[in-house]
Design brief:
This protein is about 5% helix and about 40% strand. The chain contains one helix and 25 strands.
Amino acid sequence: MKLKYSLIIKLAAKRCLLMVLFAALALPVWAESTRLISSQAARFKLTPVIDGLGIPWGLAFISDGEIIVTDRDGKIRLVNIKTGKLRVLKGAPAVLADGQGGMLDVAVPPDFKRGDWIYFTFVREKNAEGVTVLARARLQGDQLVKWQDLLETQSATDTTYHFGSRITFDEAGHVYFGVGDRGVRPTAQDLTNHNGTVMRLTRDGKIPKDNPFIKRRNVLPQIWSYGHRNPQGIAYDLQNRRLWVIEHGPRGGDEINLVLPGRNYGWPVISYGKEYWAPLQVGEGTEREGMEQPVKQYTPSIAPGSLLLYTGAVFPNWRGNLFSGALKLQHLNRVTINTQGQAVAEERLLEGLNERVRALTQSPQGWIYFSTDSGKLYSIKPVAE
């Protein structure tokens, strides 16, 4: 009898142990421990904030503790990063969530105050094709109100990729955003459409009178620069008044470009990338007169999903650096830019995280937050904090 009782106890103990192990595997991401990480220029702690966000494509702080998160499937959420509570906001538009399309970026101007305009890019279905749209709305409670489409771009094709599209603002009341070539390469050199361009508008959607092509016939006046393949990261340096864009190359040849008005950035005539179907150079080479060279190019491709110019005080050695999320090579890419606008150093952070880093934003405190395609949101803070 004692032997039988002892056997029952052992079996019960094993069952309890298995239940504990299975439960541990099911724990949400915020059960992950904070990791302390040393990089070349800073020590920081990486902390999971929240999980279960779908594919969180855009991030924007609207207060010290609240962040708007766009999900590519069309949801727009308000996340309280202190409590982990999230709400799905009402009033979002219908989106074409197909391929790389859907609800894309969210951004607020540098002088944003609660109740001001919040800016979005998304993909709309139009005549069975997809077009990228720039819009804005205000937040009242859990409702987006006064939704305004500022520009429905002339970018329709029947492909489901290269929609862009990130948003940034300068010091003079302008908003910038980009659209990719929409999978039809020659359109990036055709100024009668918005494909493969960065555009510049006033914050209320008007065309600035000093845009570079404003007086040229048969050129869309919103265009600021062209010859871009697929700009999925954009950042404006308010201190030095410089516009940065990072864009996908084909197989190799991702580029960081210092974007100037009216300039041609070469795609698809010149590129550092190769064709997907063969080890052949795209275009006619890597240089051509009248076409701009990148400040930095990545071969092999890292597949950049975002761009952040760091301006905070808590990481003084990172001030002025460009950060990009890497999708294919799964890391956080940091590039040091000197006063002349040259890329002088690169560091690859969080390579062991094994996550496709999608979106980046800086909090009012100077902390960095980023999302991953697995639906997670993380924070990066100094170890001292």
